[in-house]
Amino acid sequence: MNADSSRSHFIFCITIQEIVLNTGDSKVGRLTVVDLAGSERVAKTGSMGVMLHEGSMINKSLMCLGKVINALAALAEKSSDSGTSTNAALPSASSPLPSSSFALPPSSPVQQAPVAVSSLIASSFVPYRDSKLTRVLQDALGGNSNTCLILSCSQDAVHLSESISTLRFGQRAMRVKNSPKMNVKRAHEEAEFRYKKSHQHLEAEYQAFVSSVMGWAESTVLKFAKTQTAKKAKKTKKLLMRKMKRECLPTHQWKMALLLFSLG
Description:
- Keywords: ATP-binding, Coiled coil, Microtubule, Motor protein, Nucleotide-binding.
- By secondary structure, the chain is of the alpha/beta class.
- It has helices at 42-45, 50-82, 86-89, 117-123, 132-136, 160-173, 187-246, 251-263, and strands at residues 10-19, 26-35, 99-104, 146-151, 184-185.
- The protein contains eight helices and five strands.
- Strands 1, 2, 3, 4 and 5 form a five-stranded mixed beta sheet that branches.
- Strand 1 and strand 2 (26-35) form a beta hairpin.
- The chain starts with 9 loop residues before the first strand and ends with a helix.
């Protein structure tokens, strides 16, 4: 138990980028230092009101961290059994993070997250987005960085259960495998990517234009065909009326003929 809780996690990030002027290539590195807030047992602290809400949010984020560690450990075990790389089963890390470290406070409940390991293995899903804390540490946990985890335990016997739980959490975290590598961005690769995106955009615009032109042409042809058909029908009707009048047919007969013609 912490005598004075900080009521929050501390996250400090340093990002350094190196650009080669001749080629335009760049290297990006990030150092992330995290000091996690200690967990709080309501039965021991007696927190109420705002402090109770803050403590519950701290415990929730630590619980999410425990779920992520359990999921990554399960994936690492699955990968080792199948003889494949762990990183192939994990979601690809989007942001560069070559070096990271974070400290776990004493009495942390992160290891007590109720996670079904079998379901995690089946789905290969790591719940990074369940918490802002795990989202920030996504690349440090199972990503392409070097990660150092420091566990803090209490020597008091009254906190024995929390200390044991913290050590068990560290034991599970040791099974998580990262794949450290340099974050190098090639200038020609970025240019090629931009050209491909531009080509795809222009291709989509061209297809949309062709579709609109074809639709307009089709509707115009249909309207023209209907107009010509109506004109021919009107002309035929006039010719029929003239013919019937020349033959001096009775009025009711040629009216009936016109009616049948219009119905047909």
